[in-house]
Amino acid sequence: MAKQRTFGKLRDREREARRRLIVDAALRVFATRPFDRASMREIAAEAGIAASSIYTYFPDQQALFIEAMTRESAPLIEKLERIVGRSRGAAALERVTIAFVEFFMEHDSYFRMMTHFMMQGELGEESARRVGEIMRSVFDNLDRLLPGKDARSTRLNSHSYFAALNGILITFRRYPGRGRDELVRHMRQVGRKLAAMAASGMIEPGKDGV
Q: Is residue 180 part of a domain?
């Protein structure tokens, strides 16, 4: 019985390792094009496994995209929750901003995957629901730092700030003629400026929205 349990644990670890291998490969492929334009055969080749075996773990590209997004976003959300849980105000907003910028500079493939998705990706109803849950986790943390006059204006503040953070990354992460360390320092400076502007009330709740 003990030997069977040991074999069972080994099989579980092997299965989980194979699953991680596939998600890692999918992340690299999705960083080059929208997930729905990448084939399962291509992802299997990137992972170094047979194309037929990939379906043992994932039924399609959408499932792989959701798995990659869930896994990759978890450390960022946990970090934001720790920061927001300890403090509020301008200092917390600045720390969240720097954490966001540094996270996506360190997770380049994930950032590129999400950029392709935001520009071109299409999801089914269930997948869209799961993506929405992940996004709301980020917005909920920003809500606690960017309160508006009511819930609607607070969420609009968070959406605006999130868009601005992504704008910093898109604008400067590949700025020509600058090394990576210089770019990171500059993005931190821009992020601190953004946080100071928001904290001083320069980002105001709008009257319209979705």
A: yes
Whole-number Cα distances in Å, 75 to 69, 144, 195: 11, 19, 22
Backbone angle region of 201, left / alpha / beta, with phi > 0 → left and psi within -120 to 50 → alpha: left
**Is the distance from CB of 27 to CB of 43 less than 8 angstroms?**
no
Question: Contact at 8 Å (CB) between 160 and 209?
Answer: no
Residue 120: what pLDDT? Answer: 78
Tokens representing 1 are: 């019985």
Helix, strand and coil in the chain, % to nearest 5: 80, 0, 20
pLDDT score, position 4: 59
Q: Is the dihedral of CA 182, 183, 188, 194 positive or negative?
A: positive
Largest CA distance in the chain: 66
Overall domain count for the chain:
1
Q: What was the pLDDT predicted at 139?
A: 96
* pLDDT averaged per 10 residues in sequence order, the chain, 210 residues: 62 86 95 90 94 91 93 95 90 95 93 88 86 94 93 94 95 88 93 92 50
Direct distance between the N- and C-terminal alpha carbons of the chain, in angstroms, rounded to an integer:
58
CATH classification of the domain holding 96: 1.10.357.10
